[in-house]
Amino acid sequence: MRSDKPGDDILSDAQALVEPQVEELSQGEFESIAIIGVGMVGGSIGLALRDFGFHGQRIGLDRRRVLDEALAIGAIDQAVGDLAEAVPRADLVILATPVLETKKLLSTVLRTARPGTVVTDTAGTKAEICALAAETKDARGLFIGGHPLTGTSRRSIANARAELFTNAHYILTPTEKTAEDPLESLKWWIRQLGGIPLVLKPAEHDRLMAAIQHLPLMLALALADGTGDMAHAFPLLCKLAQGDVREMTRLSDASYETWEGILQTNREEILKVSAQFRKTLKNCEAQLKRGDMTAGFQAAHAFRRQLLRNHAGLWDARCELIITAPDRPGIFARITSLLADREISIRDLRVVYMQEATGGTLSLLVASPAEAALALDLLKNEGFDVRLRD
Asked: Which of 3, 166, 179, 310 sits most deeply, having the most CB atoms within 10 A of its CB?
């Protein structure tokens, strides 16, 4: 039964698919999959299918050099040179290309596909792409928009990895005309990759991404530009601006080429959330002028707790350890070796803050609270300054 409450459909989709049986996942309906764009995302799809035990055909289309590397690492079974060779042979076609490239190729793919072939994409915005699919005349393929919430700005095949989608949310954006059977087939295919499928309307997807991905980019750019202007007057600023500023401006390192299509196709939603943010910033300024920012801190802390409780994937905030580590060669290797010896699964290990010559702070994410407790004792016994995340 479907709930009328907003968001309940999303939760039921995730909860119903968290623990699929292997024999159920093996009943995949896609025997031939065409991956258009075999970069970091497309290559990872191919590798994930291989590791799952997919016995069908994985057809790749990209530049010759990329295809040679994809063949060498086992991300595809066959390389082809054009859409006309790849698309008609596939039961599932994946456009793993940037937004603007996806828009250029989509109508041709839908017309070239066999009748009933499922076509999806991985681009970061959905409304314009889904509208284009709906407007395509003589389309034979069935389009369902897709967006895996994983990956990095490093888009090459060299950065592909089979575990990229493990426990990652993978959004699907069907329309009112989308039939139930192809949607369900695509959900199970996502589970084969290791992902968690969630269903949203295209406009809802773009509104959410504007808030949680695109606005943070704009803020990082603004902070980097503004702080950079101050650095002209105060050269010492760059030496003193370490952990917090570096972390908060990290997104500004991305190239405009990476973000151009996303910013162009989601401009209106980004401007809406940006306007709302300016109102919130003004409220913070008003609290500062009054000399009491208690309300602002309380609201921020409440949201942070909610954010940590709803960590994506099959673990929660109780699985994260914070390690204060010295600046010494091999520190990462030592930590991973200690945990591997005790068969503790590392989901993520990253630098939160680092100061040259003195050391910094690491974030370690493991698979379960029980493993977190075991890792905590193990690292403490080895002399590490470590604690569970607050």
From this structure: 166
- Rounded to two decimals, what is the model's pTM? 0.78
pLDDT at 328: 77
Smallest Cα–Cα separation from 122: which of 74, 168, 178, 57?
168
pLDDT of residue 20: 43
- Output the average pLDDT for the chain: 87
Nearest C-alpha neighbor of 362 from the set 372, 353, 373: 353
| Residue 196 near residue 18, CB atoms below 8 Å | yes
When pLDDT is averaged across residues 267-295 and rounded to a whole number, the result is 96
Cβ neighbours of residue 290 closer than 8 Å, sequence gap 6 or more: none
For the chain, list the domains and their CATH numbers: 8-200 (3.40.50.720), 205-309 (1.10.3660.10), 317-388 (3.30.70.260)
CA torsion 26→1→119→169, rounded to 10°?
Answer: -70
**Angle CA 108–110–114, to nearest 5:** 115
Phi, psi values for residue 341, rounded to 5°: -60, -30
Is pLDDT of 2 > 70? no
Other beta carbons within 10 angstroms of residue 238's beta carbon come to: 13
Q: From 131, 149, 122, 280, select the one nearest 213 (Cα to Cα).
A: 149
Query: What pLDDT score was predicted for residue 9?
Result: 43
Average pLDDT (170-179) is 94
Closest CA to 260 of 308, 214, 200: 214
CA angle 137, 258, 174 (to 5 degrees): 35
